[in-house]
Amino acid sequence: MSNQAIASPATTSSGSSLLALPAELRNQIHQLVLAVGPVVQLWYESGTGRFSSCAVPDTDAPIELLDPDHVSWLRSCKQVYHEAVQILYAINTFQLKAHDTAGGRYLRGYSGLATSTILAFARGIGRLNAHALRRVSFFMGPVWAQDAPNRARRQTLVRMIRELQVWKRGLPKCHLEASLRLIVSRVTRDSADFRFVVAMDPCAAIESLRRATADFHDAAAQETGELAIPALEVGMFVSLLEDLASELSHRKT
């Protein structure tokens, strides 16, 4: 309860049975109602009609919840809203996505989409609610491994990690995880998800990237028959992750 909003003393003038309950009980009710599930997925409507699936999300568009029924509790009355709104952000994990099916164009034209998406979310919920956040997951992808030069991919990932680290400094109590999905074969559409924790110190990200390198290499080595993941592709991606870890380690100093 220490990191959640605390209900104020009951005001019985409204005649509400809920508001007549002790503050501790009201907080427990708020938590039960507003616990959406393992992850609250958010996205931005691009406004491009039938082409929305292949458009970069518009971060100026309203945020949408997958299940808006959970937040209808906050609309019941002003006191319930003020008591419970920060509980909503404190007890749930929020997942934001920055999609681009044309990964090469995204990587070559990168302009801070990772940060702009999260900043739009933070601005949309307000400063106090943003400080109530405890768990945020950011997902970028999918991107094609062979759609951009190795150097461009490395610079994009380094920039994304750095921007997310800057954002996290303002929310020291929030655990931020970033995920990248990389498609490694156009033919068979085999893919691998590489997850790394964004921390104030990039050591955690470096270690996670090195584990991803080893896992990717081991998975390719265990393929039987015709390789679903070409050997050249494996070498390029392993080199990318190793270079990225090296660059983060260098910039740390």
Task: Describe the structure in your own words.
Residues 15-100 form the DUF7730 domain. It comes from Friedmanniomyces endolithicus. This is DUF7730 domain-containing protein. This protein is α/β, with parallel strands linked by helices and 253 residues long. The protein has one domain. 44% of the residues lie in helices and 16% in strands. It has eight helices and six strands. It has helices at 23-34, 78-91, 103-108, 113-125, 127-132, 150-169, 203-221, 231-252, and strands spanning 40-44, 63-65, 93-98, 135-144, 175-183, 191-197. A six-stranded mixed beta sheet has the order 2-1-3-4-5-6. Helix 6 links the parallel strand 4 (135-144) and strand 5 (175-183). The radius of gyration is 21 Å and the shape is elongated. The chain starts with 22 loop residues before the first helix and ends with a helix.
